[in-house]
């Protein structure tokens, strides 16, 4: 991902270029992450199927706060929280030779972050609660 450098991202409406896939044909296409009407969208165009706009966050202010850094007037970083993630281990899911996204599974070309962390607070858990993710 290509984050804006040298600008105060918290005041920008355009955040970065990235890669995506067409939801119709699954071909790799370029995309941009940008703000519109206080929300954050991924905007992309497939030459064959046209334009697509997917919402990433319904709150642009919160999205910017959790994804970018803030600098003081001297250029010192006050805080930074990049959520680009870590590379996934290679785990090809099929023999399809067309490449990403057809045969990836978890592929080292993709990055991810922890979406849900579970911490055991007790040894008395029997993993039987129907609402719990721990089982």
Automatic annotation (TrEMBL):
Pfam families: Zn_ribbon_HMPTM. The keyword Cytoplasm does not apply. GO terms for molecular function: 4 iron, 4 sulfur cluster binding; catalytic activity; metal ion binding. Residues 14-58 form the HMPTM N-terminal zinc ribbon domain. Its cofactor is [4Fe-4S] cluster. InterPro entries: Methyltransferase_Class_D, MoaA_NifB_PqqE_Fe-S-bd_CS, Zn_ribbon_HMPTM. Keywords: 4Fe-4S, Iron, Iron-sulfur, Metal-binding, S-adenosyl-L-methionine. The keyword Iron applies. This is HMPTM N-terminal zinc ribbon domain-containing protein.
């Amino acid at each position: 991902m290509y984050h804006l450098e040298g600008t105060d991202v918290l005041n920008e409406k355009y955040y970065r270029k990235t890669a995506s896939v067409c939801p119709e044909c699954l071909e790799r296409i370029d995309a941009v992450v940008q703000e519109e009407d206080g929300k954050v969208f991924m905007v992309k165009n497939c030459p064959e199927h046209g334009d697509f706009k997917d919402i990433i966050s319904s709150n642009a202010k919160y999205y910017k706060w959790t994804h970018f850094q803030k600098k003081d007037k001297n250029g010192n970083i006050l805080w930074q929280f990049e959520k680009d993630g870590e590379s996934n281990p290679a785990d090809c899911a099929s023999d399809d030779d067309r490449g990403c996204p057809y045969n990836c599974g978890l592929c080292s070309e993709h990055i991810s972050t922890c979406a849900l962390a579970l911490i055991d607070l007790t040894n008395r858990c029997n993993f039987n609660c129907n609402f719990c993710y721990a089982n």
